[in-house]
Amino acid sequence: MSQFRAYWAALAIAVFSLGAWAASGNSENGPLVIGQVVDLSGPNADFGRDFSLGAKVYFDSVNSSGGINGRRLLYRSQDSAGSTNQGVNAAHALIKDGAGLLFGINGDPIIEAIARDATVRHGDLAIFAATGGSNRLGAKDGVFYLRAGTAQEIEALVAHLAPLGIRSISLASSAEYAEEAGAALSEVGRRYGVKIGATLRFNVADDGPALAAQSIARDKPQAVIVAADTLAVAQFFKRYRSLDQGAFLATTSQVNVRTVSAIMGLAAAHGLIISQVVPDPASISPLTREHKKMMERFVDEPASYATLEGFAAAKTLVMALRRNRDSSKNGLQQNLQREGVFDLGGYLLNFSKGGRASSFVELTVLGRNGQLLR
Questions:
Q1: Regarding predicted confidence, which is higher, 262 or 30?
Q2: DSSP string over 240-252
Q3: Is 288 buried (19+), middle (13-18) or exposed (0-12) by CB count in 10 A?
Q4: Does pLDDT of 65 surpass 50?
C-alpha cells in the first residue's frame, strides 16, 4: 500500500471510530474535531481528494508540534459523492460525532443545503473554507470563502482572451455553475466588447457533455469556456476538439489537469487555459516552500493547486484559532473580521470587508508535455 493510500485508509478508520473521541472532542482543553464533507467518489473527487490531502498534511504538522496551544486537532472527512442529500447526512454524522466546525465543503448545492440545515444552524457551526463559486451565501450565513468566486474566474479569462482579438465567446456549464458563470460572462462581455454566443447548461451524465460540445460547435465561437467538474470538462473538450481545432478552450479552477489530459490526450489538451485561485505550488514563496516541505515529509506525493488550496485553508484556520479558540460561527466571524488580513507567506487573505477573503486569480496554459505554464 502506498503512503498516499495508507493516509486515506487511516482517515476512513478514524471516521468510524470518531465516537470514542466525541465526549471530549470540543471541550475547552479537549481535541477539536474538524469535520469535512467532501466529494471523494463523485464528479469532483479529483479536486476533493487533493484538497483534503493538503489540509490533512497541515493539520498533521500542527499536531506533530503539539497542536494549538496543546489542543490536538482531529480532522475527519465524510464522502458526499457529489450528492446534496448524502452531503447533508454526512454533516449530521460529523456533528453527532463531535465536530466543532465544518471545513472545506465543496460544491455550491451541497454548501447551501448544509448551511441552511436546521441541525447545522442550531449548532452554530461555521463552514470554513467552502470551495464553491457562488456568492449567494457569506459570513452572515456562517459560510467563510477563502477562494475567488466563479464570477472572478470568468472575468480573468475574458480579460485574457479579449486582448488576443477574441470577439465571440460561448459558455457551457453544468447546473452547479450555470447561473453564476452565465451572469458573469454576460456582464464582463459587455465591458470588453465581446459577443456572447451560445450559453448552454448541460447534464453531466451520460453523453451530456459531448452533446453540448456538438451544439456549441455549430455556433463557431472563437473561444469556449466550460464551467463543470473534471470529467464533464474533459469529455466536453475531447468531443469539441474533434469538431473545431482552432477555438481557444478555457475552464475554471476545480478541475484536475492530469485527468483532463489523460481523457483528452496531450495533443488535444495542449493550449487549454485554466484559471487558478491560489499561487503556483511550484513558485517560490514562504507558503509554497512550506507546502512542498510538508508534502514531502508527510505523504511524499506531488503538490498540486488543490493540495496547496487545502493546505492554505488549514493554515488559515489554525492561525485564526491560535488567536481566539472560539470555533463557533459567531466566534469565528468576529475573530476573522477583527484580525482582518492574514498573511500566509506571500498569499494574503482579507476578511475585514466580508465576502470572499481572496480575489486572487491567475491563468495557466497546458503545455505540450502536460505541464501547466503560467
A1: 262
A2: HHHH-SSSEEEE-
A3: buried
A4: yes
Q: What proportion of the chain, given as a percentage, has pLDDT over 90?
A: 75
List, in order of start, the domains of the chain with CATH numbers.
3-147+282-350 (3.40.50.2300), 150-276 (3.40.50.2300)
Element (H, E) at 263: helix 257-264
Enter the C-alpha cell of residue 37.
464533507
Task: Say how far apart CA 154 and CA 148 lie, in whole Å.
Answer: 10
Phi and psi, residue 253, nearest 5° = -75, -25
Show the cell assigned to 68: 494549538
DSSP class of residue 165 equals: T
Cβ contacts of 80 within 8 Å, gap of 6 or more: 37, 38, 39, 40, 42, 86, 87, 90, 105, 106, 107, 110
| Cβ-contact 36, 105 below 8 angstroms | yes
pTM above 0.85, yes or no: yes
100 φ/ψ angles, rounded to the nearest 5 degrees: -90, -20
Residues 6+ away with beta carbon under 8 Å from 164? 248
CA terminus-to-terminus distance, the chain: 35
SS3 content of the chain, % helix, strand, coil (to 5): 50, 20, 35
- The Cα–Cα gap between 349 and 319 comes to 12
Q: How many Cβ atoms are within 10 Å of 322's Cβ, its own excluded?
A: 12
The grid cell for 340 is 482582518
